Input
Amino acid sequence: MSFDPQIRRLPGAPKLAVAPLEDTSTFKNRAYSALKEVIVSLNIYDQPHEVRLDERQLAQSLGVSRTPVREAMAQLEREGFVHSVPRRGIYVVRKTRREVIEMIQVWAALEGLAARLITLHSTDEEISRLREMFTTFEDGTLHAKLDEYSEINIQFHQTIIAMGGNGILVNLAENLFTHMRMIRRKTIGENDRVARSIQDHLAIIQALEARDTERAETLVKMHALGLADHVARHADYLS
Output
């Protein structure tokens, strides 16, 4: 089922659609979740223009009043996903190149710590699940379907954070990774990064399996910082 777009589109802007909320008990939280998911799925860095969100049309599409949508928007603005411009409206945030690089640098530190914790505390069975994500790419062919690999790539990094078993680390990483997810989608297809990323991931898995704490932490950090370097050198679409 499709619904009316809930943005006033500038030329070339994408159409957005969200399903009405059926359970009226938690409008604010459900509106927040629905709108965040839509924003993340936008591929905002592929858009030639800013994306403006229309509060009234969003409320109509969700089947709720404007109050929970306004509350959800306020939370999304605090988290850096949207920003309001007086007398103009609410826009989806596009991070600058410097902001993206700084986010990646912080992520490298968090994921590196998670890798260290995995080598010390995770079971062999838990670590083996990481390898299972890539079995279809270990037959000598690294030309994976891009969309499929991009999603697995995202899941891989989320899994490493979760496997670290540190709740505070997971909470710190959650929104940071949501921002990074949008830029990862954009960059994974650039400069043959798929093939190199697969090789990096397999090397990380091998270090985790060997319980080589220092190597695992170093490889994870280098992999993340490689993305930061790529953004610094090639992401001219970031202001």
About this structure: The longest helix spans residues 97-121. The radius of gyration is 19 Å. The beta strands are 52-53, 82-85, 89-92. Confidence is low (pLDDT under 50) at residues 1-9.
